[in-house]
Amino acid sequence: MNLTIQPLAKAHYAQLCELAVSEEQQQYVGTMEGLLACVSMDVHPHVICVNDQVIGFFLIDTFYGIKYDFALDNAIGLRGFFIDQRYQGQGYARATMVQFGTYLKSYYSHRENIYLTVNCRNPFARQSYLAGGFIDTGELYLGGAAGPQHVMKLSYA
Ligand SMILES: CC(C)(COP(=O)(O)OP(=O)(O)OC[C@H]1O[C@@H](n2cnc3c(N)ncnc32)[C@H](O)[C@@H]1OP(=O)(O)O)[C@@H](O)C(=O)NCCC(=O)NCCS
């Protein structure tokens, strides 16, 4: 499997706009349009590719540690992680997570920790993160619109 993680670039954009999750899964990440609206100087878009096809997306929020009490001040955050519905169930989330720490080390080397929250009703996502070395901190984040979320953390330094 030739899976790569890359910062979003112009060459990805047309395929990126075709990505979606099912309606039922939108409660966890929203829509592609909504995610792109979150991009800013502080919130960076990244894509997951298999060969030359864009199959997934996520945001890195460099202000995460400032925004959330459960995170260390200097930590970054993972938001909006998804694999397009056509490509789910084929091991791509797990394969992304296997490379994730190394990827973060090359692009966010001045940071050491990344956090995320994952809905308690979303076990496949939690499984994928555990496969990448994330630990469940045992805390629950109750601020999400779709119900309680597990707080997970990866130290990648
Ligand atoms: C959660 C998500 C990223 C998983 O992506 P994926 O590429 O389908 O996941 P994988 O195929 O790598 O599987 C990951 C784990 O979930 C399990 N899994 C995934 N889909 C499954 C299904 N339909 N039935 C049973 N198990 C499933 C796999 O067996 C695997 O577990 P394992 O590591 O113990 O073997 C994807 O379903 C998704 O984008 N969901 C919508 C958005 C979302 O919820 N994002 C997370 C926000 S925190």
UniProtKB/TrEMBL annotation:
<dbReference type="InterPro" id="IPR016181">
    <property type="entry name" value="Acyl_CoA_acyltransferase"/>
</dbReference>
<feature type="domain" description="N-acetyltransferase">
    <location>
        <begin position="3"/>
        <end position="157"/>
    </location>
</feature>
<dbReference type="InterPro" id="IPR000182">
    <property type="entry name" value="GNAT_dom"/>
</dbReference>
<protein>
    <submittedName>
        <fullName>GNAT family N-acetyltransferase</fullName>
    </submittedName>
</protein>
<dbReference type="Pfam" id="PF00583">
    <property type="entry name" value="Acetyltransf_1"/>
</dbReference>
